[in-house]
Each structure stands twice: as structure tokens, then as C-alpha cells.
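Subject: for your reference before the review

Hello V.,

The reviewers asked for a structural picture of the protein, and I figured it would be easier to keep everything in one thread rather than splitting it across files. Below is the amino acid sequence we used in the manuscript, unchanged from the supplementary table.
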Amino acid sequence: MKKSHLNHWALALGALVTLGGVLMPTSLAEAAAYHTVSTKKIKKTAYHKKHSQGAIYNKKHTKKVSNLTTHPHTTWYATKQATLKHGKSKGIYLYVQNSKHSVKGWIWHGYLKRGKAPFVLTKAKAAVAMDAKTGKVVWSKHANTARPIASVSKIMTLYLTLKKIDGKKRNWNHKVKITSRGLVSMSRSADCGGFHFKLNHRYTVKQLYYAAFLDSSNNSAIALGKWVSGSNAKFIRKMNAQAKAWKLGKAHFVSASGLENSDLKRFGYAYGKANANKVSAKDVALIARHLMTSYPRVLTDGKIGSMTVNGQVCYNYNNLLKGRKYYRASLKVDGLKTGYTPLAGYCFVGTGHKRGKHRVITVVLHDINEFTETRSLMDHAYRLSRMSN
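And here is what came back from the structure prediction:
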């Protein structure tokens, strides 16, 4: 055979790869050669990706629908099976579609494995989903590893503040005089501030509470701690004592606000030898559970999108709330706390109460997609039967 003829056949057959003895298409060049030998309906069966290769086509293989690599964690549901013939080779193909019915087509059975795709969070360095009613962990990823948690730390500060307030109106209305130039300076800092303090001005505990909760004001959180315990150092010791009382073995605090000591030292509020608060995702969820159980008002307060406090707008950065970018009505998210520092990354402790289900608490740490992955984690938790009422 002439070399030109050999090249012709090489091009014609070069689009095929052999897998399990079956010639599989890698391009559309051979499309016309695919013929249907038989087709039958099968019981709806879940599959997920078995190989890094593989693609979904229309039945005649004249059009590629999608590569499996673009759907690494998708569960595919097969409802039909066909035997397709290409030349002298035959192969078994499945008609599959994803749960949203947005991607559908035929794929060689050898690229898939029976069963639903394992649930994963690709971005979070640590995460947990907890049944708020029972305290049981439903799903986790590195959930027992202590990590920096940034302003998520404030849920402990809020707990101890509400414990000191004890529901008494006079405590809510108690006025805290700001005499610390460090806190005033912090409040005006471009990277650490937000809710501005005036030197020698008096703020009510209630104003500081909302500034710390909604606006995630670091200076307000420290001021609350000083009111609760008399000094910043005493309050941090109280935070650690409370963690110990709850038997949180993966929690250690050096800051009432969640700022690291590398930032706090310039304002005169560095404490301890460690640089950052370090708490595991599971222990964050447990703190949140204690907070919500003892002081359910945080679920009402946590839904506030923004509030004017002492003439300043305090904006809640929880973007899973109604009216926000990542809101989903079915999840009914009503809290709880965001956090970010360059060291901790984006952190979020969320909670929602879907109808007919137990309330769920989720924590994602160091997750650039904290809201979308929280939604996925909540959906997964709700799919589990043990989360049902």
C-alpha cells in the first residue's frame, strides 16, 4: 500500500482508542459509521464518573454533548441502554442525564461506575454540616483540624455578651465609654475598621452588639469583651474557659474579634503567643449551636440585611439572605456569620431551617466560594434521611 493510502487510513482510524476491547470515539470523524443494533429501557440507575476521560454524545455520535471532565462530581441517571456497532466492533452505551435534565445523551458504559457521585467541596479547606437538633455531624471535611477562622470568632464573643446581658433591658442600654485611642484608630483603619468610634463617646451595649454582629466591627467586638470582663485579656481568657467548659478540644482564642495578633499589635491589643484564633470546623459548629440554642434571638438578628446604628449603616455580608445574590428560597437561611482575613481566607458559618427538616448548621473555612459551597453543603445535608423530622 502506498504511503499516501496509509496516511489516509491513519487519519480515519486515528480518532479511535481502544478501551476494554471496544473501539471508542475521540472525535466526530467516524460518526457516520455508528449504527444502532438494539435499544431497551432500563430501570433508572445512578452512575458517576469512573475515568478522567469520556464524553456524552447524541446517539449517532454526530455531536458531542459534553466531556465528563466538565462534570467531575455529577450523578448521572441512566434510563436506556443500547448496543451500538462501529465497523466490526460493538459496544454497550447508556442514555444518561443529570438531575437537572440540562445535560443528556449517550455514553459508553465503561466510562461510568454505578452509584451516586460522592459529595465533595472542592474549595473549602475544612467544612462540616451538623444537625442543629441532635448535634450530630452529617458530613465533614477535615472538620477536626484547627484553623484560623477570622471574624467567625465573633460568635463566641456574641455568646458571652448575650450571657452577660441576660435578657435585661438595663444591660442592653448600658453605655460603654470609648477611652482607647487604639480602638478609635482601629475603627478608622482601611483594612481592620468599619464602624467608626469617637474618642470618649458612649455607645450602648445594643449598638455595639449590632455593629459587631452585622457590620463585623472588630473594635466593637473588643469593646464588648472589655465590658463583659473588664479587660481584653480577661475576656479572651473567658473565651478559652468557655471553650474548655464545652469540651472543645480544637479551639484556642487570642482575639475577641478574629483579627490576628500581627494586625492587633499596632493598635495595642495583641494577646498571647499564637498569632490567630484557631478553631476546627466542628467546634465552630458547636459554638454556633450553643449560641442559637441559648439565645435564639440571633436567628432574628441574623436576618437583618442592614441597620443604621448611631448614624452609621451596618451591612450584613451574608449573601445567602433573602434579596441577596446567592439566596435560595428552599434553604431558608437566617444566619449566621461571615469572616475573612488573608490568613484565614473566606469563612462562613451558616444556618437554615428547611420545611420538614431539622435545622442545619454549616461551616466552611478558607473557601473562596463560601456561599455557593454552603448552599451545596446544605442541600446535601437535607438529602440525608437523618435530617428529616
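For the response letter, the relevant points are probably these. The chain has eleven helices and 21 strands. The two ends are 74 Å apart (CA to CA).

Happy to draft the paragraph if you're swamped.

O.
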